[in-house]
Amino acid sequence: MTVKKRVIIAEDHTILREGLRALLSSSPDFEIVGEAEDGRAAIKCVETTRPDLILMDLSMPRMSGLDAIREIKRQFPHIKIVVLTVHKTEEYVLATLQAGADGYVLKDTTHAELLMALESVLRGKRFLSPGISETVIEGYLEGKKTGAPRSAWDNLTHREQEILKVIAEGYTNKQIADYLCLSVKTVETHRSNLMRKLDLHNVSALTAYAMDKGLVTR
């Protein structure tokens, strides 16, 4: 009898999580052993269940999927991680691969392609959606060889990227502080650092930048 691969689904949208659970549960190859609504919960779930594979969203509250990938790979390098996301910009793809993800799948993929991605990664191969351009892949490989110069975006910490997203979504400093469990003073410091690093001087400019980076929809 085939031993089922143990899978965790980390996705903050309930309806998507339920759909993924239904899809994978219908396959004889997978067993859902845990679900998480944010990056921190995903790490705790991994520590408890020790899965073979994690299906991970990137844009989640409290801790982003990218930060969760780094921490999980640090503690459990053998666990496979496939990112399932709407983001197809070069910055997201490269950051995710460099964090240690084994696969990168876009949310407009078919069920068959998603299953193929999971199976491929479990066999020890890397999988990237066909929607990810060859230019992005080549840029990643070339950057690893030569150490490409860092852009203003690359110089942001992941916390700063996270705060940029919620600023662009219209949250106040107080709301951001409550949302991310930070002090208002810390949020103000991050906001100031964002403006300095990006050379942007108001919320409108930050919002436009976040839209260009695919952090929020237009």
* CATH superfamily grouping of the largest domain: Response regulator
Q: Which term fits the overall shape?
A: globular
The tally of helices reads: 10
Order of secondary-structure elements: EHEHEHEHEHEHHHHH
Mean pLDDT: 85
SSE topology:
Layout: E1 5-10, H1 14-25, E2 30-36, H2 39-49, E3 53-56, H3 65-75, E4 80-85, H4 90-99, E5 103-106, H5 111-122, E6 127-128, H6 134-146, H7 158-168, H8 173-180, H9 184-198, H10 203-212
Parallel strand pairs: 1-2, 1-3, 3-4, 4-5, 5-6
Which terms summarize this structure?
Arc Repressor Mutant, subunit A; alpha/beta; 10 helices; 6-stranded parallel beta sheet; 218 residues; Rossmann fold; globular; 2 domains
Tell me what the structure shows.
The structure is a single chain. With 218 residues, this protein is an alpha/beta fold. The protein has two domains: 5-146, Response regulator (Rossmann fold, 3-Layer(aba) Sandwich), CATH 3.40.50.2300; 158-212, Winged helix-like DNA-binding domain superfamily/Winged helix DNA-binding domain (Arc Repressor Mutant, subunit A). The chain is built from ten helices and six strands. The chain has helices at 14-25, 39-49, 65-75, 90-99, 111-122, 134-146, 158-168, 173-180, 184-198, 203-212, and strands at 5-10, 30-36, 53-56, 80-85, 103-106, 127-128. Strands 2-1-3-4-5-6 form a six-stranded parallel sheet, sandwiched between helices. Strand 3 (53-56), helix 3 (65-75) and strand 4 (80-85) form a beta-alpha-beta unit. It starts with a strand and ends in a 6-residue tail after the last helix.
